[in-house]
Amino acid sequence: MHTFGLIGYPLTHSFSKKYFTQKFLQEGIADTVYELFPLPEIELLPKLIASQPTLRGLNVTIPHKQIVLPYLNEIDTAAKKIGAVNVIKIAADGTTTGYNSDYFGFRETLTDWFKQIHGADGLSILHQTKAIILGTGGASKAVKTAMDDLQIESIFVSRQPADGQLSYESVDEKVLQVYNLIINTTPLGTSPSIETFPPIPYHFLTPANYLYDLVYNPEETTFMRKGKERNAHVLNGLPMLYSQAEKSWEICNSQHSCNFFVLKTFDGIQIKYYLVTGSQPLNYFQQLIVVEIRKCNVFVYRFFQIINIQGRIHIQLASVML
Fold first, then answer.
1. Count of alpha carbons within 13 angstroms of residue 31, beta-carbon side
2. φ, ψ for residue 260 (rounded to 5)?
3. Sheet holding 298-309, edge to edge
4. 2-99 is classed in which CATH architecture?
5. Is 247 a catalytic residue?
6. What is the mean pLDDT of residues 278-296?
7. Residues 6+ apart with CB under 8 A from 298
8. pLDDT at 130
9. pTM value?
């Protein structure tokens, strides 16, 4: 039996339990259950894990995404950069590793959205946008990291702005023209408080604006409706929710780890190196170096095996099916 679950507080309604229970039934995943674990205090996490020997993974929601970090044995590089975790992979010995699937869910759905709107020119148009990110909570940090990795300029908008951030009062017609992608990471508009919305000057919106609301319930938030009234493009958070859920399942069931460890940039070319490690018999273990080369948003990948056979290291070009 394998157990997966959700921690947060309160857990009055849960997309995750319904989604994964249905997934297990539809895909014939036997001896696997998904449970809710209301956790009023994050200090209770070690006790929870110790009391659930079949627990292999947890999704993390409000208010624990950021305060959970000190309670984990390891943190994925991207999650560490974001400063928030929403997936915890739990090994059989109880070792915990934190990840952030919001990053992957947001990035994937954002690029797909622009492709749907603009076809083959979607990614090119996306990279010409600038964005304001409404809110500074855990989800906003995943969004900001994704925007940085996409090399799209973005800036936070907050009720109490820190240095380098905007206040809501400073968002005017010029700001909405320059920063034409507007991403709501606040809970404003979430059911049952469906009449609430971020306080920006919607009357300045035009068809050149894009409004992405991370809220997924209701299907159309007041934020989105106000954008549609000005003929702006709008998207709600449901596609991201599904995407990050699938990513969390992939993380918790992966037998490999992947760590980004070097970034080099020169002459407009960005090179990243990733080390992917998987378990093999003790006298033969294999590691894979993935080299990602990016220029003008075109990606090329090269794969190299690092093989240790009875103490001797071999490095060779690898053939990998993506």
1. 4
2. -80, 130
3. 256-266, 269-278, 284-295, 298-309, 312-317
4. 3-Layer(aba) Sandwich (3.40)
5. no
6. 46
7. none
8. 98
9. 0.73
* Torsion angle (degrees, nearest 10) of CA 177, 181, 186, 188: 70
Which pLDDT band holds residue 282 (cuts at 50, 70, 90)?
A: very low
From 17, 18, 65, 174, active-site residue: 65
Mean pLDDT of 43-55: 96
In the prediction, which pLDDT does 280 show? 37
CB 308 within 8 A of CB 315: no
Determine if the peptide bond prior to 218 is cis (ω within 30°): yes
- Residue 77: pLDDT band (50, 70, 90) is confident
Average pLDDT over residues 188-198: 95
* Whole-number pLDDT of residue 307: 53
Q: What is the pLDDT of residue 165?
A: 97
The CB density around residue 13, as the number of other CB atoms within 10 Å, is: 9
Tell me which residue of 106, 111, 104 sits closest to 125, measured CA to CA: 111
What is the residue-wise DSSP string for 33-90?
A: EEEEEE-SSGGGHHHHHHH-TTEEEEEE-TT-TTTTGGG-SEE-HHHHHHT--SEEEE
| Cα–Cα distance measured from residue 235 to residue 183, given in angstroms and rounded to the nearest whole number | 10
200-217 per-position pLDDT tens digit:
999 999 999 999 999 999
CB 175 within 8 A of CB 199: no
**3-state SS record for 119-186:** HHHHHHHHCCCCEEEECCCHHHHHHHHHHHHCCCCEEEEECCCCCCCEEHHHCCHHHHHHCCEEEECC
pLDDT at 277 over 70: no
Per DSSP, what are the bridge partners of residue 133?
156, 183
Q: Among 224, 228, 179, 237, which residue's Cα sits nearest to residue 207? A: 228
Fold of 103-241: Rossmann fold (3.40.50)
